[in-house]
Amino acid sequence: MISKKLHKLIYQSTEAGYTLMESMVAMVLVSILAVSISPMLGFWVASRVQARRVELGAVAARAYIDGVRAEVINHPDFYLTNPTLLGEGADVSTLVCEQNNDYCTQPTLTNQGQFFCVNNDDTSGCQVDSATDIVLHVGSFSPSGAFYQLDSNNNPRYELGYKLDVRAYQAAAFSEPGKLLRSSSTKSQVSRVSGLADKKAPLVEISTEITTGETNYFELENLLQ
Question: Which of 78, 95, 97, 205 could form a disulfide with 117 if both were Cys (CB 3.0 to 4.6 A apart)?
Answer without folding.
Answer: 97
